[in-house]
Specification:
2 copies of one chain form a homodimer. Chain A has 222 residues and is α/β, with parallel strands linked by helices. Chain A is built from 11 helices and 5 strands, in the order ααβαβααααβαβααβα. A 5-stranded parallel sheet of chain A has the order 2-3-1-4-5, with helices on both faces. Chain A is globular, with a radius of gyration of 19 Å. Chain A starts with a helix and ends in a 7-residue tail after the last helix.
Chain lengths: 222, 222
């Protein structure tokens, strides 16, 4: 039998590279990071981009509240439901404090990076209100891998939509630390893409993202 | 403009399903979870399985210490390096205590599940010594999606290999809580696959995993 150390080194050298994964996929991996106020249209546009990429044979995946807040970034209550101890749930469960939001975005950024290394177009749809948290994700990736999409919908439009009644609750003081009401939203300074969420329907905005991905060579022409 | 809530509901209903992703990929998504002692061969075999799957056109990805311990499950020291506060690093940074190991495996399980939902063969290579932690990941997935691979290499063989000198340090008392020495390893009770790491070379063991994936219809015949 060979020495285990040698075998390990040997096979790590021959691990599948990102370029080989991208060649199999027929496109580049990257992170498409949506940011913007609650109800600005992030999730709708992100899912539409995913849908359109899939239809073109591009391997993509959406990380959003639906698949993150019940798993990776579960609340203390969910952790307790899954038979973790109270102490464990208190330490690792996430709420909506500034520190918890920082960790929420940090974990999502780390996972998006893994999907990017796997050669997928990782699409994230979170408010991600703090500039420093988003910039930290950008810094963790190679130049060009992080595509920041600012969904710039006026707060009046978001508040008029308010599909979950969250703005109403926040205005009534029933929700504390709500972004745009009593917690800051820090818009990106140099986002790769700005989408005017109050001016155009999601269909048009999603096409803007695809056009960018195609123009920058992340995905092949139609 | 349509009502945002309606648009969102509409598109969520038409989100790309796991089945559609699997159809594009030409194979099923699943989690191949390696478990076993330090130096038992997990990482070597996992990377070899990844390599062989890739060569067959299967979309796979390995989660291991290399890409997890510097990102998603970083230590307090790394979090501080990345400009998180001391308090933040202490709360969310992971070490090797029982609680930290529990959270380490919990996060890895959640990420592996996301890769599985994206239609990939997610391969994890961590000691993952505690049965309850592994079983929690199994429970989070649909039946058949979790394939537990027990790399059953006798500790004497692992200790004789000791590529990083960890067993030596643990025996000398310089490493505390080392699995198999002064921290327990709880072998799986009903693993899907058992690999005899002391009896066969990694090449043969990796083929056993591929044979299982093919026999259970996760990947197409060669």
């Amino acid at each position: 039998m060979k020495d285990a150390g040698q075998v390990q080194v040997h096979w790590h050298e021959h691990a599948v590279s990102r370029e080989e994964r991208e060649r199999l996929n027929g496109h580049r991996g990257c992170v498409v990071w949506f940011t913007g106020l609650s109800a600005c249209g992030k999730s709708t546009i992100a899912n539409l981009v995913d849908h359109k990429l899939h239809a073109r044979g591009v391997h993509s995946f959406v990380l959003d509240g639906d698949n993150i807040r019940h798993g990776l970034n579960a609340s203390p209550a969910i952790l307790r439901q899954n038979h973790h101890s109270d102490e464990f749930a208190r330490r690792f469960g996430l709420g909506f404090s500034a520190e918890d939001r920082e960790e929420n975005i940090r974990r999502i950024g780390a996972v998006a990076k893994l999907f990017c290394e796997a050669g997928l177009v990782a699409i994230t749809a979170f408010i991600s209100p703090y500039r420093a948290d988003r910039d930290r994700v950008r810094q963790s990736l190679a130049p060009g891998d992080f595509i920041e999409v600012f969904v710039d919908t006026p707060i009046e439009v978001c508040e008029a939509r308010d599909p979950k009644g969250l703005y109403k609750k926040a205005r009534a003081g029933q929700l504390k630390g709500f972004t745009g009401i009593d917690d800051p939203y820090e818009p990106p300074l140099r986002p790769e893409i700005v989408l005017r969420g109050g001016d155009h329907p999601p269909e048009v905005l999603a096409e803007q993202v695809l056009a960018y991905l195609q123009a920058t060579g992340k995905i092949p022409p139609k």
